[in-house]
Write a structure and sequence with these properties.
membrane, ATP hydrolysis activity, Rossmann fold, 8 helices, about 250 residues, alpha/beta, ion transport
């Protein structure tokens, strides 16, 4: 279980994010949604102790009830908690997928003899052929690259997975595959946090949806509320965002 209490992020004397509080239990998916540039990726970085230089985290993070300092997060990153980053450039263009899985398995503390099998198992969980390991990143489609990033992050079977903008640049078919991947990982007992600007995707993949806005943080709401005209969405800003999506006619509330 991962829990955030009043998480805040400051840089150069400015508060960039504040009031973020949530709990994600094993087997559950939380989507953290909001407009581009609102600070969602900063929250993802804070959850794994990877904030950029000059940024500071406030509030309290817990992993299985233990308070997590940045030093603690560094110690468990890639092992108990992992991040699948947004940029496809996070994959090393000069290394085969197999090598990148083995590096991640080593960071996760897996013994040398177990790393190849762990990579194969991770690919299998995502429905990717074992031959994917022989490819270089430039051989991968956007959808495959996204799924490989998730596979690399989960090769050590972390308790918590944070996925940053997993649908960016993908077509509908690839988005559906990614959604299935994340739900399967949750079914296997992982606590999953999805960072996304896409509320429609959030409503389909998550059990609960929280929204960052210029005015603050809307606590997690049932994903089932994000249907039809959004009348059941309790937060006004989240409701406006939902109604403004292309799938809902891009309605702008007065």
């Amino acid at each position: 279980m991962i829990e955030a209490q009043d998480l805040a992020i400051h840089m150069d004397g400015r508060r960039l994010v504040s009031g973020v509080s949530f709990t994600v239990d094993p087997g559950r998916v939380l989507a953290l949604a909001g407009e581009s540039g609102i600070g969602k990726s900063l929250v993802a970085a804070a959850l794994v102790g990877m904030l950029p230089g000059g940024a500071q985290r406030g509030g309290t993070l817990f992993l299985d009830g233990q308070v997590m300092t940045d030093a603690c997060l560094r110690a468990v990153r890639g092992r108990r908690i992992a991040l699948a980053p947004q940029p496809l450039s996070s994959l090393d263009p000069s290394a085969r997928v197999d090598d990148q899985f083995r590096w991640a398995a080593r960071r996760a503390g897996l013994p040398r003899m177990a790393r190849k099998a762990a990579a194969a198992a991770s690919l299998a969980r995502l429905g990717l052929a074992a031959e994917t390991c022989d490819l270089y990143p430039h051989h991968l489609s956007g959808g495959m690259a996204r799924r490989v990033l998730v596979g690399i992050a989960t090769v050590g079977r972390p308790q918590v997975l944070i996925v940053d903008e997993p649908t960016s640049g993908l077509d509908g078919a690839s988005i559906a595959l990614v959604a299935g991947d994340l739900r399967r990982l949750a079914s296997d007992g992982c606590a999953v946090i999805v960072i996304t600007h896409d509320l429609v995707f959030a409503s389909r993949v998550a059990d609960a949806v929280a929204v960052l806005s210029p005015g603050g943080f809307a606590a997690p709401m049932p994903a089932s509320a994000f249907t039809s005209d959004g009348a059941d969405i309790p937060d006004a800003h989240a409701r406006r965002l939902w109604r403004a999506t292309p799938a809902n006619g891009m309605t702008v509330d007065a």
